[in-house]
Amino acid sequence: MSNLQVATTKIQQGVWRGVLTHATGVPQIEVLHLDKPVPLVTVEEVEDGWLVQFPIPADAIADGVQTFVVVDKVDGEQIWDFTLIAGEALGDDIRAEIDLLRAELDMLKRAFRRHCLETA
């Protein structure tokens, strides 16, 4: 079982960065997207662990949900994953959720007003 942990992560200017902790020696990791290794992954020692970074491949930025998995190559354990969500599919999902929330809020408002009239 992997003892590696991701302490912090961020994506900036198309580059994913994460700091791994609890590593003894240089972590042997790989990043997978659609079960294929992502190129240009680098690991370098920093003050609080190991900085792992890689540019997100341009062909991985597409409509829908794209999942990246950080794996310990020694034991095959998943250390971390993150998703990118983009495109029209996301907009439809969010709009549908907001419409549903508005409908539920309207229902609650009517029920509350009815309750107030009945108890007054």
Your description of this structure?
The protein is α+β, with helices and mostly antiparallel strands. The chain folds into 2 domains: 5-85, Immunoglobulin-like (Sandwich); 87-120. Helices cover 27% and strands 43% of the residues. It has 1 helix and 8 strands, in the order E-E-E-E-E-E-E-E-H. It has one helix at residues 88-119; strands spanning 5-12, 15-21, 29-33, 36-37, 42-46, 49-55, 64-72, 78-86. Strands 1-2-6-5 form a 4-stranded antiparallel β-sheet, with no helix packed on it. Strands 4-3-7-8 form a 4-stranded antiparallel β-sheet, with helices on one face. Strand 1 and strand 2 (15-21) form a beta hairpin. The protein is elongated. The mean pLDDT is 88.
Q: What is the top-level CATH class of the largest domain?
A: Mainly Beta
Number of domains: 2
Discrete helix count: 1
Strand content: 35-45%
Order of strands, main sheet, comes to 1-2-6-5
Overall 3D geometry?
elongated
What characterizes the major β-sheet? 4 strands, antiparallel
How many whole angstroms does the radius of gyration measure? 22 Å
Average pLDDT metric? 88
Instruction: Tell me the distance between the termini.
Output: 63 Å
Low-confidence stretches: none
- Helix/strand class: alpha+beta
Helix/strand order: EEEEEEEEH
Second-tier CATH architecture of the largest domain: Sandwich
**How many β-strands, per DSSP?**
8
Q: Can you give the helix content as a percent range?
A: 25-40%
